[in-house]
Amino acid sequence: MKRWQLTLGLLATLLVTVGLAGCGNGKQAATKTYKYGSITIPAKNGTICGAPNYIAYEKGFFKKNGLKAKLVAKPTNITDLEAGFTSGKYDALNGDFQYLPAIQNGAQIQAAGGIHQGCISVLVPKNSPIKSVKDLKGKTIATPGEGSTPQYVASIALQHAGINPKTGVTWKTYDFDLLTKAAQKGQVDAIGTVDPYAYQAVKEDHFRTIVDNNNSNNSQKMADMGMKKSGSCCYLYLSNKLTKQNKSKADAIVKSYAEAAKWINEHPKETAHILLSKKYVAKSKFVNETTVTSLIKQYHFGLKKSSGKADVAYYAKELKQAGYLKKDTNVKQLVQQAYYK
């Protein structure tokens, strides 16, 4: 009897040991697959310019570079984004130059490269008497939020037209999908928004474009409005906790986005299919694979590090002049603070 009990005891010990070894091996395999662990990206907001987030995830670039990525909804309030990066909730972001004032005020993020050219327009209804930026003086402009890039793009154009963006116009805020309706109802005179909402407003509701910050054609007319020739509109941002404390993980993220942006530029049609079929971008009569493909081609995706830094410096100067950065801002120092490498 004792011998039988001893045998059972040895067998149980063996099974536990094997089981633990199996669990250990599984854990090691997972660690090996995701060398740098998990990252959380506030990506989902329905815009085409967020394509690098989705392609890096869907085409496996994050996984290839040792990152287990989770894509979550992007808060519309920049304060919520700041809090997310400060707390460690978020690790990376595909965002615009709107974050420069936030960085100056302590937001814990750094830009790591320009990722594509413009996707923002200032529009007016088809029957509007407004023909140019100068006609916006004293008018009401709606954007997706205070401190949003559409507001900054409109403000840069206003100051180049001799209009103080803080006192020369009235600003209102509406959700992306309500902006065109607000203008059509006469609640506002003009709107600043991003694609695909801007594109749809033009194609479906026949809005007219007053300002287009995609100056990939090097238009002098747009340059005179402050829209930098071939300038990056959107950038890859990383958490300071990564850029300062875990550079290997930060570099893995940069590599993932660089590969995704390159893939997008080489495969615009397949990118459009993924964005729409996976419902990252809402499909409509005018927002379909053909039109999204066309827009993606116009954005010229590709991670630009040195030229991206020059673009950040350009927009920092413009935002200082528009009154969105402190009057005594040292642009060179701010760019050093705001840029990774």
Automatic annotation (TrEMBL):
The keyword Signal applies. Residues 51-270 form the SsuA/THI5-like domain. Keywords: Signal. It comes from the Bacteria. The keyword Endoplasmic reticulum does not apply. Residues 1-21 form the signal peptide. This is NMT1 THI5-like protein.
